[in-house]
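Task: sequence in, structure out. Protein: Nitroreductase family protein.
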Amino acid sequence: MGTALAVAPKKEWYNSISQRNSRRNFKEQALDESAVEKLVGLCQDFKFPEARAELVLRSSSDIYKGAMGSYGKIKGAPAYMAFIANTSFPHHLERLGYLGEGLILEATNLGLSTCWVGGFFRPETVANALSIGPNERVMAVTPVGYTKKNYSLEERLMSGMAKSKKRLPIAELVSGLPQDEWPRWVKLAVEAARLAPSAVNRQPWRFHIGNQQIIVMLDSIVETYNIPKRLDCGIAMLHIELGALACGVRGDWQFLNEEGVAVFTAEK
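Result:
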């Protein structure tokens, strides 16, 4: 992605895509020391000049507001991760979604539960718990902790409202090469991107399939829900890369402008 990462995306994160679910009710149980060490280490290594994350080992109950604070309230999480963008850089939103999803998938690998929160939280409260630079802004958070195996009634209701299990069919998301001409890595990459989380499951991405390339585009430049669509697209970008890695294919990203987001080109 232009700037090299100290730690590349992990191939095992691909399996976590299907295992990850948004959870809101947590056990009041401290994180295992080993999990803390691994998440802190990843926060230090998996970052960009444009975006980074910090793990905060304290209750997140005071950082939520609005509907999230009453109906579907996040309860009991002993920690949270804050996702911080340096707004002086271009493409900071895409970078933030990409790295934030990597940390969330790593938490899933560690047996922890999470929930992307891009709205209904108090960024100024989070910023007070961190060391924030002059051009930095807290764009999103996730609670981190352990959950019961079964979903609570609130969680089931919220999941139904958000239609989190419903995804647009691939045919409505793609253009370019016909599906019967796609190599296997493109099929896995597009399906992985289709399963990416987004604000209220709006799925703001579209994909154009070229020769050994996947171009990520916005469905529209009109923003909704006060959460940038490009952050959601950054999440989908990581999923594309993980789908390719699952087939042993590596590649590189180049950013685009306007309705274009980025293009992933497989290495030859």
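The longest strand covers residues 136-144.
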